[in-house]
Amino acid sequence: MGDAMTTAATTSANRVPSHTAPNVNERIRNKAIDSIRHYAQNPAGIGERLRELDREWDVERALETGSSVLSLTGLAIGYLITPWGYLLTLVVQGFFLQHALQGWCPPLPVFRRKGFRTRDEIDRERFALKAIRGDFDGISGAGAMTAPRAYEAAERN
Length: 157
What we know:
Elements lengths: L1 H8 L12 H20 L4 H10 L3 H22 L4 H18 L5 H6 L5 H15 L3 H4 L6 H10 L1
Helix pairs in contact: 2-7, 2-9, 3-7, 4-5, 7-9
């Protein structure tokens, strides 16, 4: 059972992007590269941008929060107004389970279009900015990097 459950529940860095429209993925990627390019030209702001990235909500956190709020709302409606309110909780948690297992659920495209990124996408920008700032110079000897090159290096993990 352990192997089957591990396989069914295993997540990968690509499960959300693979269920996202290519143009949305490209917009998210280009926005990150534009940010990296901006901070490559204005390195004094990299520290503040890294702090912003620390506070950025990823798509998983947004889905978890939305799921919790809607589920609690359904429970309250079910208890206080009509038993049909419990149906909201059932549907929302069904979608959340689907997301956990498959990496997709009906609200996901909405969140992605609003610009919510995966933790991996946020970390790519973070590591690219650190590479541009020179944090890894002693490790790789790579020296100065362009924004697209830094992002591609971060994509390789």
